[in-house]
What does this fold into?
Amino acid sequence: MISGSHGNFGTMNYFMLRHARPLLLREKLFFHTHAREYWPHGVESAKLQLAPVTLRHLRKTDLMHRQIAWIGFYDLTLSKHIARLAAKGGTLVDVGANIGYFSCLWAAARPGNRVYAFEPSPRVFHLLKANIEEAGVCSSVKAYQLVLSKEKKQIQFDPGPEGQSGWGGITNEVGRETILMQADRLDDVMPADLYVEVLKIDTEGADAWVLEGAERLLSSHHIRHIFFEQNVERMSKLGIPVDAAFRILQSCGYKVNALGRDGTAFWACPA
It folds into this structure.
Protein backbone atom coordinates (compact mmCIF):
# COMPACT_ATOMS: atom_id res chain seq x y z
CA MET A 1 0.00 0.00 0.00
CA ILE A 2 1.21 3.50 -0.79
CA SER A 3 1.69 5.50 2.39
CA GLY A 4 2.10 9.19 3.19
CA SER A 5 0.95 12.05 5.34
CA HIS A 6 -2.78 12.63 5.40
CA GLY A 7 -2.60 16.34 4.68
CA ASN A 8 -0.47 16.35 1.57
CA PHE A 9 -0.22 12.67 0.78
CA GLY A 10 3.15 13.52 -0.81
CA THR A 11 4.33 14.41 -4.29
CA MET A 12 6.09 11.06 -4.60
CA ASN A 13 2.88 9.20 -3.71
CA TYR A 14 1.07 11.11 -6.46
CA PHE A 15 3.77 10.16 -8.97
CA MET A 16 3.66 6.51 -7.92
CA LEU A 17 -0.12 6.30 -8.05
CA ARG A 18 -0.29 8.10 -11.40
CA HIS A 19 2.10 5.59 -12.97
CA ALA A 20 0.84 2.37 -11.38
CA ARG A 21 0.03 -0.38 -13.89
CA PRO A 22 -2.23 -2.01 -14.86
CA LEU A 23 -4.94 0.62 -14.61
CA LEU A 24 -7.10 -1.70 -12.53
CA LEU A 25 -4.33 -1.80 -9.93
CA ARG A 26 -4.12 1.99 -10.01
CA GLU A 27 -7.86 2.23 -9.39
CA LYS A 28 -7.70 -0.24 -6.49
CA LEU A 29 -4.76 1.60 -4.92
CA PHE A 30 -6.72 4.84 -5.06
CA PHE A 31 -9.63 3.34 -3.13
CA HIS A 32 -7.36 1.55 -0.62
CA THR A 33 -5.21 4.55 0.33
CA HIS A 34 -5.76 7.98 1.78
CA ALA A 35 -5.91 9.30 -1.78
CA ARG A 36 -9.69 8.88 -1.81
CA GLU A 37 -9.92 11.33 1.11
CA TYR A 38 -7.45 14.03 0.06
CA TRP A 39 -6.60 16.14 -2.94
CA PRO A 40 -3.10 15.53 -4.39
CA HIS A 41 -0.76 18.19 -3.02
CA GLY A 42 0.17 20.87 -5.55
CA VAL A 43 -2.06 19.45 -8.32
CA GLU A 44 -4.53 21.88 -9.87
CA SER A 45 -5.59 20.02 -13.01
CA ALA A 46 -6.12 16.47 -14.21
CA LYS A 47 -4.52 15.01 -17.33
CA LEU A 48 -6.77 12.20 -18.52
CA GLN A 49 -5.34 8.73 -18.95
CA LEU A 50 -7.47 7.66 -21.90
CA ALA A 51 -7.45 10.79 -24.06
CA PRO A 52 -5.04 13.66 -24.83
CA VAL A 53 -6.90 16.23 -22.74
CA THR A 54 -6.63 17.96 -19.36
CA LEU A 55 -9.50 18.99 -17.08
CA ARG A 56 -8.69 22.18 -15.18
CA HIS A 57 -11.93 22.82 -13.31
CA LEU A 58 -12.65 20.29 -10.56
CA ARG A 59 -13.97 20.35 -7.00
CA LYS A 60 -11.51 19.22 -4.35
CA THR A 61 -14.37 18.06 -2.12
CA ASP A 62 -15.80 15.69 -4.74
CA LEU A 63 -14.74 12.03 -4.66
CA MET A 64 -15.12 11.57 -8.42
CA HIS A 65 -13.03 14.67 -9.12
CA ARG A 66 -10.36 13.54 -6.65
CA GLN A 67 -10.16 10.20 -8.45
CA ILE A 68 -9.68 11.91 -11.81
CA ALA A 69 -6.99 14.18 -10.33
CA TRP A 70 -5.09 11.31 -8.68
CA ILE A 71 -5.25 8.59 -11.35
CA GLY A 72 -6.52 10.22 -14.56
CA PHE A 73 -9.79 8.38 -14.98
CA TYR A 74 -13.12 7.58 -13.38
CA ASP A 75 -15.14 4.34 -13.58
CA LEU A 76 -12.50 2.32 -15.41
CA THR A 77 -14.84 -0.22 -17.00
CA LEU A 78 -17.12 2.39 -18.53
CA SER A 79 -14.18 4.63 -19.46
CA LYS A 80 -12.48 1.84 -21.41
CA HIS A 81 -15.68 1.07 -23.35
CA ILE A 82 -16.27 4.71 -24.22
CA ALA A 83 -12.62 5.36 -25.11
CA ARG A 84 -12.63 2.34 -27.45
CA LEU A 85 -15.79 3.54 -29.20
CA ALA A 86 -14.54 7.14 -29.31
CA ALA A 87 -11.46 5.98 -31.23
CA LYS A 88 -13.78 4.71 -33.97
CA GLY A 89 -15.57 8.05 -34.22
CA GLY A 90 -19.12 9.35 -34.13
CA THR A 91 -21.48 11.19 -31.79
CA LEU A 92 -21.80 10.89 -28.01
CA VAL A 93 -24.89 12.04 -26.14
CA ASP A 94 -23.73 12.58 -22.55
CA VAL A 95 -26.73 12.83 -20.20
CA GLY A 96 -25.55 13.83 -16.75
CA ALA A 97 -22.28 15.18 -18.11
CA ASN A 98 -21.08 16.56 -14.76
CA ILE A 99 -17.76 18.42 -15.32
CA GLY A 100 -17.31 16.95 -18.80
CA TYR A 101 -15.06 13.97 -18.17
CA PHE A 102 -16.69 11.68 -20.75
CA SER A 103 -17.56 14.57 -23.09
CA CYS A 104 -13.95 15.77 -23.27
CA LEU A 105 -12.61 12.22 -23.47
CA TRP A 106 -14.85 11.57 -26.49
CA ALA A 107 -14.23 14.89 -28.24
CA ALA A 108 -10.44 14.70 -27.87
CA ALA A 109 -10.12 11.07 -28.97
CA ARG A 110 -10.58 11.65 -32.69
CA PRO A 111 -11.05 14.62 -35.07
CA GLY A 112 -14.65 14.87 -36.16
CA ASN A 113 -16.14 13.39 -33.00
CA ARG A 114 -19.22 15.26 -31.77
CA VAL A 115 -20.82 15.52 -28.32
CA TYR A 116 -24.18 16.70 -27.00
CA ALA A 117 -23.63 17.20 -23.26
CA PHE A 118 -26.53 17.67 -20.82
CA GLU A 119 -25.93 18.87 -17.26
CA PRO A 120 -28.84 20.54 -15.47
CA SER A 121 -27.19 21.49 -12.17
CA PRO A 122 -26.41 25.22 -11.98
CA ARG A 123 -23.59 24.36 -9.55
CA VAL A 124 -21.90 22.10 -12.09
CA PHE A 125 -22.82 23.46 -15.51
CA HIS A 126 -20.33 26.35 -15.32
CA LEU A 127 -17.55 23.80 -14.60
CA LEU A 128 -18.62 21.75 -17.62
CA LYS A 129 -18.51 24.82 -19.86
CA ALA A 130 -15.13 25.89 -18.49
CA ASN A 131 -13.58 22.46 -19.02
CA ILE A 132 -14.90 22.26 -22.57
CA GLU A 133 -13.45 25.68 -23.36
CA GLU A 134 -10.03 25.12 -21.79
CA ALA A 135 -9.72 21.64 -23.29
CA GLY A 136 -10.04 23.23 -26.72
CA VAL A 137 -13.05 21.16 -27.79
CA CYS A 138 -15.72 23.88 -28.01
CA SER A 139 -16.28 23.22 -31.69
CA SER A 140 -16.99 19.54 -30.97
CA VAL A 141 -19.18 19.79 -27.84
CA LYS A 142 -22.59 21.41 -27.52
CA ALA A 143 -23.59 21.81 -23.86
CA TYR A 144 -27.16 22.14 -22.57
CA GLN A 145 -28.25 23.14 -19.07
CA LEU A 146 -31.37 21.05 -19.33
CA VAL A 147 -33.10 18.17 -17.55
CA LEU A 148 -33.86 15.26 -19.86
CA SER A 149 -36.90 13.18 -18.96
CA LYS A 150 -39.98 11.47 -20.40
CA GLU A 151 -41.94 14.67 -21.13
CA LYS A 152 -41.51 18.38 -21.65
CA LYS A 153 -42.53 20.26 -18.50
CA GLN A 154 -41.29 22.11 -15.44
CA ILE A 155 -39.79 19.68 -12.94
CA GLN A 156 -38.37 19.71 -9.43
CA PHE A 157 -34.58 19.29 -9.31
CA ASP A 158 -32.40 18.82 -6.24
CA PRO A 159 -28.81 20.01 -6.89
CA GLY A 160 -27.51 17.81 -4.07
CA PRO A 161 -24.86 18.69 -1.47
CA GLU A 162 -22.68 21.71 -2.18
CA GLY A 163 -19.44 19.71 -2.13
CA GLN A 164 -20.60 16.86 -4.39
CA SER A 165 -21.30 17.40 -8.07
CA GLY A 166 -22.88 14.08 -9.00
CA TRP A 167 -25.66 13.65 -6.45
CA GLY A 168 -28.22 16.03 -7.92
CA GLY A 169 -31.30 14.81 -9.73
CA ILE A 170 -35.03 14.93 -10.31
CA THR A 171 -37.03 14.78 -7.10
CA ASN A 172 -40.63 14.60 -5.94
CA GLU A 173 -39.69 16.14 -2.60
CA VAL A 174 -39.65 19.92 -2.28
CA GLY A 175 -36.87 21.08 0.03
CA ARG A 176 -34.90 24.21 0.86
CA GLU A 177 -32.43 23.63 -2.01
CA THR A 178 -34.92 22.31 -4.58
CA ILE A 179 -35.27 24.36 -7.76
CA LEU A 180 -37.76 24.32 -10.62
CA MET A 181 -36.16 23.49 -13.97
CA GLN A 182 -37.24 22.88 -17.54
CA ALA A 183 -37.28 19.25 -18.66
CA ASP A 184 -37.45 18.03 -22.25
CA ARG A 185 -37.39 14.81 -24.22
CA LEU A 186 -34.26 13.65 -26.04
CA ASP A 187 -36.40 12.92 -29.12
CA ASP A 188 -37.45 16.57 -29.23
CA VAL A 189 -33.99 18.04 -28.62
CA MET A 190 -31.92 15.92 -31.01
CA PRO A 191 -32.04 16.29 -34.82
CA ALA A 192 -34.40 13.70 -36.32
CA ASP A 193 -31.73 12.29 -38.63
CA LEU A 194 -28.98 12.09 -36.02
CA TYR A 195 -27.13 8.81 -35.55
CA VAL A 196 -25.71 8.40 -32.07
CA GLU A 197 -22.83 6.02 -31.48
CA VAL A 198 -23.11 6.24 -27.69
CA LEU A 199 -25.82 7.42 -25.31
CA LYS A 200 -24.38 7.61 -21.78
CA ILE A 201 -26.90 8.24 -19.00
CA ASP A 202 -26.16 9.01 -15.35
CA THR A 203 -29.09 10.85 -13.78
CA GLU A 204 -29.22 9.45 -10.23
CA GLY A 205 -32.36 7.35 -10.63
CA ALA A 206 -34.13 8.84 -13.66
CA ASP A 207 -32.28 6.95 -16.43
CA ALA A 208 -35.47 5.10 -17.44
CA TRP A 209 -37.27 8.41 -17.98
CA VAL A 210 -34.46 9.57 -20.28
CA LEU A 211 -34.92 6.39 -22.31
CA GLU A 212 -38.70 6.85 -22.36
CA GLY A 213 -38.15 10.29 -23.84
CA ALA A 214 -35.94 8.80 -26.57
CA GLU A 215 -38.25 6.11 -27.95
CA ARG A 216 -38.17 7.52 -31.50
CA LEU A 217 -34.38 7.35 -31.59
CA LEU A 218 -34.42 3.93 -29.95
CA SER A 219 -37.14 2.42 -32.16
CA SER A 220 -35.28 3.49 -35.30
CA HIS A 221 -32.01 2.17 -33.82
CA HIS A 222 -30.41 5.58 -34.33
CA ILE A 223 -28.58 4.90 -31.08
CA ARG A 224 -25.96 2.17 -31.29
CA HIS A 225 -24.66 1.82 -27.73
CA ILE A 226 -26.39 2.78 -24.47
CA PHE A 227 -24.72 2.88 -21.07
CA PHE A 228 -26.97 3.50 -18.09
CA GLU A 229 -27.21 2.94 -14.34
CA GLN A 230 -29.76 1.72 -11.81
CA ASN A 231 -29.95 3.79 -8.63
CA VAL A 232 -32.68 1.72 -7.01
CA GLU A 233 -33.11 3.94 -3.96
CA ARG A 234 -33.61 7.10 -6.03
CA MET A 235 -35.82 5.20 -8.51
CA SER A 236 -38.08 4.10 -5.68
CA LYS A 237 -38.52 7.69 -4.51
CA LEU A 238 -39.50 8.70 -8.05
CA GLY A 239 -41.90 5.77 -8.42
CA ILE A 240 -39.90 4.19 -11.26
CA PRO A 241 -40.16 0.36 -11.41
CA VAL A 242 -36.83 -1.47 -11.20
CA ASP A 243 -37.39 -3.08 -14.60
CA ALA A 244 -38.54 0.09 -16.41
CA ALA A 245 -35.35 0.74 -18.40
CA PHE A 246 -35.06 -2.92 -19.42
CA ARG A 247 -38.67 -3.03 -20.65
CA ILE A 248 -38.22 0.13 -22.73
CA LEU A 249 -35.01 -1.10 -24.33
CA GLN A 250 -36.27 -4.60 -25.02
CA SER A 251 -39.48 -3.25 -26.59
CA CYS A 252 -37.29 -1.20 -28.94
CA GLY A 253 -35.20 -4.22 -29.96
CA TYR A 254 -32.16 -3.81 -27.71
CA LYS A 255 -30.27 -6.46 -25.80
CA VAL A 256 -29.13 -5.44 -22.31
CA ASN A 257 -25.98 -6.75 -20.64
CA ALA A 258 -24.50 -6.10 -17.20
CA LEU A 259 -21.45 -3.83 -17.13
CA GLY A 260 -19.31 -4.95 -14.24
CA ARG A 261 -20.24 -7.14 -11.30
CA ASP A 262 -22.12 -4.88 -8.91
CA GLY A 263 -25.43 -5.02 -10.79
CA THR A 264 -25.87 -1.24 -11.09
CA ALA A 265 -24.42 -0.49 -14.55
CA PHE A 266 -25.61 -1.80 -17.92
CA TRP A 267 -24.78 -1.71 -21.62
CA ALA A 268 -27.38 -2.10 -24.39
CA CYS A 269 -27.06 -2.59 -28.16
CA PRO A 270 -29.54 -3.47 -30.90
CA ALA A 271 -30.25 -7.21 -30.67
Q: What stands out?
A: The chain has a mean pLDDT of 92.
